[in-house]
Amino acid sequence: RSIRAENVCRDRLEKTIILFTKVLLDFLDQHPFSFTPLIQRSLEFAVSYVFTEAGEGIVFERFIVQCMNLIKMIVKNYAYKPSKNIEDSSPETLEAHKIKTAFFTYPTLMEICRRLVTHYFLLTKEELMMWEEDPESFAVEETGGDSWKYSLRPCTEVLFIDIFHEYNQTLSPVLLEMVHSLQGKILTTNNKHKYIFSPVFNAVGLAAYELFDSVDFDQWFKNQLLAELQVSHDRYKPIRRRVIWLIGQWISVKFKSDLRPMLYEAIRNLLQDQDLVHMQKSRIHVTNYIFDYLICTCLFFFQYLEPMFTLLFQLLQEVTQCDTKMHVLHVLSCVIERVNTQIRPYVDCLIQYLPLLWKQSEEHNMLRCAILTTLIHLVQGLGADSKNLYPFLLPVIQLSTDVSQPPHVYLLEDGLELWLVTLENSPCLTSDLLRIFQNMSAVLDLSSENLKNCFKIINAYIFLSSSAFLQTYATDLCRSFCELLKDITTEGQVQVLKVVENALKVNPVLGPQVFQPLLPSVFRGIIDGERYPVVMSTYLGIMGRVLLQNASFFSVLLSQMACELGQELDQILGNVIEMWVDRMDNITQPERRKLSALALLSLLPSLNSVIQDKFCGIINISVEGLHDVMAEDPETGTYRDCMLIFNFEEPKATEDEEPPTEQDKRKKLLALKDPVHTVSLQQFIYEKLKAQQELLGEQGFQALMETVDTEVVAQLQEFLQSF
C-alpha cells in the first residue's frame, strides 16, 4: 500500500512539474521579450538538470523533453537574434542576445554537445532489447511511429541540430575531435569504444550540412566506413545500421559519383546476406535516403538494377508491418521512376504480388496510398504495355476515385494521378476504361484541390477517343461545367474552357454540338470585353476553332446570339470582330495568335459590308500573325511558316527526359490535322486576298486596301513577295 501511495504521489508531482514547464514554454512562445528577464535562470535550470550530474536519479523523460524544448526555443527564437546590421535591431533584441551569449560559453556548449552525443544518443537497454526481439517494430518506431513523436530521442536530435547550427564555429571542433578519436580504432565486441561509435556517427549525420567544409567524407568512406559495413558480427548490427544511415545523410551533401558503385556493391551485399535478416528489416528506412539520391543522380545504378530490384522485392515480401512495407515500396517506386522503361524485364514478380498486397491492405489506407504511388511509376515505366494490368488497375482506380466510398478520403489524390497516367499511356480506349469516368461527376462536384488533375483526365479522354467519350458523357460534363463556372477561380475557369477548346480542336464537328450550352457565355464574354486577359485569350481560342473549322455551326451560333441579345446578326458579327482585333494582345500563345488570323481570314472573300468595314483590322491581325510565325530560311532567303508540320515523327526523349507517352504520340498525330500546323498562313492570306480581289474587282479591292495603314501594307507585301 505504501508503494502504491508513493507511486501516486510521484505521478502527481511529475504532472505538476510538467504543467509548470508548459506554462513557462507558452509564456516564452507568446511573449518572448517579457520572458527576457527569465532567460538566464531558465537556461541555468534546464541545463543543470539535463546536462550535469544535478539531475541524475531525479529527472524523468517528459521533464527532460520539456527542458530541452525550453533550451531549443531560446536558442532559435527570432526575437532574440539581432539583424545583420546591428543598428536595425531593437534594444530588447540586443539585451536578450547579450544574455544568451553570456550563458552559452565554450565550456557550456562543449558539455552540452558531449552529453547529447555520449549520453542521450546512446541506444538504451530497452531499445537494444526491442532491436533483438522485434527489429522491424524498432525500425518503424524510430522512423516516425506515433509514440516516437513524443519520445526523448527525436527531441535530443532536434536540439543538437539547432544548437550546432547556431554555434557551429564553436562546436565543429568538438565533434571533429570525437570523430578523430575513433578513426583507426579496431572495434571488437568487448571494445570500450563500441557504444560510442553509433552516437558519434549519428551526430556527424545530423550535422552534415554544417560540416561540409570540415569533413573529407569521401576519404572517410573509403578508409573506414566501407569497412564498417563489412563486419558481420551480430553485435555490430547497430553500427552497420548507423553507418548506412550516415552515408545516406551525406550523399546529398558531399559524395563523389565515382564512389557510388562501391556503395551499390555494399548495399547489395547487405541486402542479400541471409544472416542479416534483422539488419535488412531494421535499416530499410535508411536505404530510402541512399536510393533517393543515388538512383536519381547516377547512371552506374543500371548495372545493379536486376539484383537490387529482386532483393528489394524479396524484402517487400518478408516484412510484415505496414510502415515497413511502405518504406520498401517507396524505394521500389524510386527505382522504377528513375530507370523508367528499363524496368520492364524485372517487374513481373511485383505485378503478380501487388494485387495480393492490395487485398491484404484493405484496412490500411496509407499502405494503399503507397501501392498507388508504385502503380503510377509502374504504368509510366510500362507505357502501352500497362494495358495488361487493367484487370487489376482499373478496379483500383474505380475504388480510389469513388467519393461514395470512405477510403476516397485517403486514396483520391493518388487515385486521380494513377487514372491520369493510365490514360496517358493507354494505346486505346476500352469499355472498362470508359466506364470508370462515371466517377468523375461526383469528384467535380467536390470542387477540391484535385480539380486540376480532373481536367487533365478529361482532356486525356478527349485525346484518346473524343467521339466515344463525348457521345457518352458530354451531357453530364456540360452540367458539371455549368455548375463549376458559377463559383470558380479564374484559373479554374480557364481550365474548363481549355477542355472545351481541346474538344473543338480534336473533333470540330461533334465538339461544338456537345458543348453548345457553354458557347453562348463564351460569345457574350467576347462581346462584353472579358476583363481577364487569360480568360479572353481562351474565349478567342474557342471561337477561333468554331469559326475556322465549323463555319456552319458558327453561323447558327451567331443567329442564336442575335436572337438572344435582340440585335441584328451583322451588328453582332461586327462587335465580335471589333473586340477580337482590339484584344488580340491578350493572346500570348503563338498557336492561338495564328489561329485567330486564320479564323478571321476565313470570313473572306465577302461582300458583307460589316466584314469589309472590319477589313483593316483583319489584315492587321494577319500581319501580326505573320510576324509571329514566319522565319527566314537561311538557304533560300525566303520566309516560311515555322509552325507547319509535314510528317509524323515519333517524339523522342533526351537522356534527361521521360520517354514520350501514347498521349504525346496522339497529340503529334492530331497536329497533322490541325489547320494551325497544316495551313501556311502566308499562303492562306495570299489566296484570301486574291479571292477578295476577284470578287470586288481591281478598283473595289484597291479601295479596300487603302483602309489599311501603308506601313502594314508594306510589311504584308514583303511577306508575300514570293507569290
From TrEMBL:
<comment type="similarity">
    <text>Belongs to the importin beta family.</text>
</comment>
<keyword id="KW-0472">Membrane</keyword>
<dbReference type="InterPro" id="IPR011989">
    <property type="entry name" value="ARM-like"/>
</dbReference>
<comment type="subunit">
    <text>Interacts with UBE2E3 and RPL12.</text>
</comment>
<protein>
    <recommendedName>
        <fullName>Importin-11</fullName>
    </recommendedName>
</protein>
<keyword id="KW-0813">Transport</keyword>
<dbReference type="GO" id="GO:0005635">
    <property type="term" value="C:nuclear envelope"/>
</dbReference>
<keyword id="KW-0539">Nucleus</keyword>
<keyword id="KW-0963">Cytoplasm</keyword>
<dbReference type="InterPro" id="IPR016024">
    <property type="entry name" value="ARM-type_fold"/>
</dbReference>
<keyword id="KW-1133">Transmembrane helix</keyword>
<feature type="transmembrane region" description="Helical">
    <location>
        <begin position="286"/>
        <end position="305"/>
    </location>
</feature>
<keyword id="KW-0653">Protein transport</keyword>
<keyword id="KW-0007">Acetylation</keyword>
<keyword id="KW-0597">Phosphoprotein</keyword>
<dbReference type="Pfam" id="PF25758">
    <property type="entry name" value="TPR_IPO11"/>
</dbReference>
<dbReference type="GO" id="GO:0005829">
    <property type="term" value="C:cytosol"/>
</dbReference>
<keyword id="KW-0677">Repeat</keyword>
<feature type="domain" description="Importin-7/11-like TPR repeats">
    <location>
        <begin position="369"/>
        <end position="720"/>
    </location>
</feature>
<keyword id="KW-0812">Transmembrane</keyword>
<dbReference type="GO" id="GO:0006606">
    <property type="term" value="P:protein import into nucleus"/>
</dbReference>
<dbReference type="InterPro" id="IPR058669">
    <property type="entry name" value="TPR_IPO7/11-like"/>
</dbReference>
